[in-house]
Structures are given as structure tokens and as C-alpha cells.
Amino acid sequence: MIKILFICHGNICRSTMAEYVMKDMVNKMNLSDSFHIDSAATSREEIGNPVHHGTRRKLKEVGILCGDHRARQMCREEYDKFDYIIGMDSWNIRNINRIIGNNDPDHKVYKLLDFTDRKGQDIADPWYTGNFDDTYRDVKEGCEALLNDCLLRL
User: For the residues of 4-25, what is the DSSP string, one character each?
Assistant: First the structure.
């Protein structure tokens, strides 16, 4: 089983979008039993809050249903539980490394776009930009490339 944890600052916009986009892709390939996909935050600011209405709206527009996810903060122990820990931007990566406190010895921490031709680029935070369309486009591109990487492990 491949275990993926998507991370953003608050766990209400980008990481939840990535979680549900990836779950949808895996479901459509009938591979749900081969994956465990979750999301979390680096901060405590949104803990307990639901998926942002902009993320929910965009996913509904493209035919992806959101569950009843509530924001939560990543914990250090999750480093050992997941195969991929995927941040959305450079600040997320810095904060992930602070949380795990081990500088990623198993090379599990990536930015989502590291799996694409846009390696190193950030996914813009729609909390600030208001542009959930661009965020979705980037998340979808990153998830497709990540899924291709995962399929090599199955």
C-alpha cells in the first residue's frame, strides 16, 4: 500500500484539494485498495474547520465530491507512517521539516510540482489569490505526475 500525506498551511484549501483529486484519480483506476491518502496542515490556525468553500466549489464543478474532512495538524510520527509527504510550497516544506525534526533521511518530502516539469515551483495559495481555478490546474497536474510515480512502485 502506498501512503500519501498532502500538506499545506491550514489544511482547508490546497492540501484537501490534492487529497480529493488524488483519491478521485485512484478510484477511477480501481486502485483504492492500494492507496491511503490523507491531508494535514503545518499550522494550528484552521484545526477543526471544514474544507474551504472555494475548494469545495471547484471540486464540485469538476465532478469530485469532498468528504467531511476537518483540518488537522501534521505530527512528527506521521513521517514514519507515510511514503510521500507532499507540501504545496517552500514554506510548507520548511515547516514540515521543522515538525519532523529529522531533515528527511528517507527522502519522503517533496513539493507537489516536483513530479512535473515544473520541479521546485510552488502551488499558489488560493486563500490569498482567490483563484481556485489555477490552483486546481496545478494540483491536478501534480497529482497526475505523482500518481505515475506511485504506479512504478506497485
Answer: EEEEESSSSSHHHHHHHHHHHH
- 72, 148, 82, 99: CA torsion to nearest 10: -60
Q: Which residues, other chains included, contact 119 with Cβ-Cβ below 8 Å and sequence gap of 6+? A: 111, 113
Catalytic sites, residue numbers: 8, 14, 125
Give me the residue spans of the domains in the chain.
2-151
Is the CB of residue 51 less than 8 Å from the CB of residue 66?
A: yes
**Dihedral sign, CA of 139, 133, 126, 65?**
negative
Per-residue cell: 50: 471544514
- Quote the mean pLDDT of the chain: 96
The whole-model pTM stands at 0.97
Q: Does domain 2-151 have CATH number 3.40.50.1980?
A: no
Q: How many residues does the chain have?
A: 154
From the number of C-beta atoms within 10 Å of its C-beta (0-12, 13-18, 19+), residue 148 rates as exposed
Q: Does 115 have pLDDT greater than 90?
A: yes
